[in-house]
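Example record

The entry below shows one chain as it appears in the dataset: sequence first, then structure tokens.
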Amino acid sequence: MKLQDLTTVDQLQEFLSGTRAVAFSVISDKDECYRWLQGELKRFRYLKRSRDDKGVIMRYLIKVSGYSRQQLTRLIAQYRQTGRLQRRQRTVAGFKTRYTPADVSLLAAMDRRHDTPCGPKVKKLCERACTLFGQTEYTALASISVSHLYNLRQSVPYQKQRRHFEKTRPQSSKIGERRKPRPDGKPGYIRIDTVHQGDQDKLKGVYHINAVDEVTQFEMVCSVEKISERYLVPALILLIEDYPFKLLGFHSDNGSEYVNYTVAKLLDKLRIEFTKSRSRQSNDNALAESKNASVIRKQFGYEHIPQRWAPLLNDFHREHLNHYLNYHRPCFFPETRTDSTGKERKIYPYENLMTPYEKLKSLRRAKQYLKPGVSFETLDQMAGATSDNQAADQLQKARQKLFKTIHGRDLRTG
């Protein structure tokens, strides 16, 4: 059976479903294909058919002609309006070239002569060459736009004459908002920074992650072998869990260990606001950096600690250091006062000297900031289990044991 033998919509349906064998050849000539389409639309009285029959005929025409549904829809619309299909062949000659190969050669010579200045400078040089020095060959380049000048530099004729390589330009990251956090007296806005524990024989040391709450100065420290996502993300999850109150903000510098999509996704999942330090604003992360000196460096110094000791250091942090810092180590809390000239300065009254836990309890309606399942009764038991001196003694003994373990084993295995 051939296509001419198909006379009903039911036969077309059988042909499309594959139950009826029909011999046909693909029409390659476009004019002939238009004539065939017009004949088939007329033969099956397409315009007078029902909606379902039109769908079958449409699928039949698509299969045989090879045209897309969109193209056939446009052709049927033309057939409906005029009663015939006429091919409209358009040949676009393209845009007229305004700048000749000679102009491109002049531009390449100008860039070579002046060591590839920026676009506006090249345009000004071409204007001066044309108007001040009478070099009429620069007339076209004198009126060129700066944006199109860069287009000519990227063209093939220019690249054949001269290639210029520039250093990769840094691209600003859109992760996090570049601004100073605004806690408004609420706990939960932490400042975080990384402290590297020195290199030795081209081997990196362990990394300390130091997170400090801006309002209460609640501080959590942990250590990781490397600052890659594999090690850093689990450490951040532990830090967030160790805080007794809900975290609302996370502020870091512009280091890639924090400004990446993995950390951003974690913070977004926990509904924690992500901000990062602004350029030329050294105080944006000053709280965490000051704690690096007064806490991390005092505890561990600057000596190299190999990365493999990170798990042991983490046990020390969670069992001794973090407890001592938050429940037994007093901190200064500043007050901002404005003098008669309108200048603001911070003072540190002795009355404001208290531990981070005491500061947390002193906040108005402090219970609302605690995590579910955490109460001040439980935290009071933790804070009162040992005195300040006992906690400090335990910290010193644990630190001595830690360093003895690290350096003793290193000496025997080295």
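Notes for this example: The chain has three domains: 3-82, 101-161, 183-333+385-413. Confidence is low (pLDDT under 50) at residues 410-414.
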